[in-house]
Amino acid sequence: MTTESPTIRAPRRRLPRVLAWLAATVVLLVAGGSVVWFTPSLFVPLMTRVAYAALGLETGSVQVQGHAWGYLAAGDSANPPLLMLHGFGTSREAMMTMMPWFREESRCVAPDLPGFGRHPFHEGQDHHADWYAAQVIAFADAMGWRRFDLLGTSMGGAIAAHVAVLHPDRVGRLVLVAPAGVRAPERNGFMEGIGRGENPLDITSEADFDRVLGLVFDRPPPVPWQFRAYATAEAVRTRRERLKIVESMRAFLLDGLTEELPRIRCPTLLVWGRRDRVTDPSMLGVFLDRVPLATGTLIDDAGHVPFSDQPEWTRRAITAFLKSRSGGGG
């Protein structure tokens, strides 16, 4: 008796099809990757999302008086809120490397301010300091915060200080990183230009982008060409609105805070880079003299963005301040 083994036929036609499918997939992936690589409007948002994931950041949005406010967030929502305000010409992404520093103690939230990042300019609205302060409070209301800590850099620092003056019952602790808003005892070239009606942060070309980068950083970080092209294109696209904001905020940013600084009643930390070429470090003394509960730190080898130039020193100063005070958040 003999038994027959079952006949197994090799899928001769299937293998070429699989190989062809794999080859086509590789070609599409390479082509797609090339398109993304050489298209800044695709590459930058993708890499930004990758950075969010790497830093453990969440994205969210809330409606404020009919406008969508997009924001980044980090930390447990049960923690006291820390609202973080970026400076002129930047966006919520400027805050994202700092946010993981404070996530253990705070619910860190960084929105795009009106007219910056993904938050459109509010047409027909004068974007002056009082209006920005009211918008910040409206955002806090929409988030359900009765009381919160507040951190601001540059223009965002000036707005944060103004919020603390106008709404002392809402702000627990205040951190100001190289804020504008007072007349510097020693006026640098940037501030002289602002006083003449210029806008040294105006960007109309990639050469302007590089110039501004060299102005605000003591050691400018390497910027891939896609980011440079994308940032320049966005600056040109929104230039008309940015110029309006500059004119609305100019007087306030030059000297609008000086007389109201004694009305800041919350514990306040000032952080400045000794090599700041935008808001001159001599302004630190003005804040320390006039804000009743202010302390300050001057960081060596740092420019207008000390949290980039000297991240470890900046982290230590701010985290120590936030941990040593009580009464913020809620």
Task: Please name the defining characteristics of this protein.
330 residues, alpha/beta, Rossmann fold, 2 domains, 12 helices, 8 strands, disordered N terminus
> How many strand elements?
8
Report the span from N to C terminus: 88 Å
Q: Level of helix content?
A: 40-55%
Rough outline: globular
- Rg value: 25 Å
Task: Give an overview of the whole structure.
The structure is a single chain. With 330 residues, the protein is an alpha/beta fold. The chain has 2 domains: 14-55; 57-324, Rossmann fold (3-Layer(aba) Sandwich), CATH 3.40.50. It contains 12 helices and 8 strands. The protein has helices at 14-37, 40-55, 99-102, 129-143, 155-166, 189-195, 206-216, 225-237, 239-255, 283-290, 306-309, 311-324; strands at residues 58-64, 67-74, 81-85, 107-111, 148-153, 171-177, 268-273, 294-299. Strands 1-2-4-3-5-6-7-8 form an 8-stranded mixed sheet, with helices on both faces. A hairpin with a 2-residue loop joins strand 1 (58-64) and strand 2 (67-74). The chain is globular, with a radius of gyration of 25 Å. The protein starts with 13 loop residues before the first helix and ends in a 6-residue tail after the last helix. Mean pLDDT is 89; it is low at 1-10, 20-35 and 326-330.
Helix and strand topology:
Layout (H helix, E strand, L loop, with lengths): L13 H24 L2 H16 L2 E7 L2 E8 L6 E5 L13 H4 L4 E5 L17 H15 L4 E6 L1 H12 L4 E7 L11 H7 L10 H11 L8 H13 L1 H17 L12 E6 L9 H8 L3 E6 L6 H4 L1 H14 L6
Parallel strand pairs: 3-4, 3-5, 5-6, 6-7, 7-8
Antiparallel strand pairs: 1-2, 2-4
Helix pairs in contact: 2-8, 4-5, 7-8
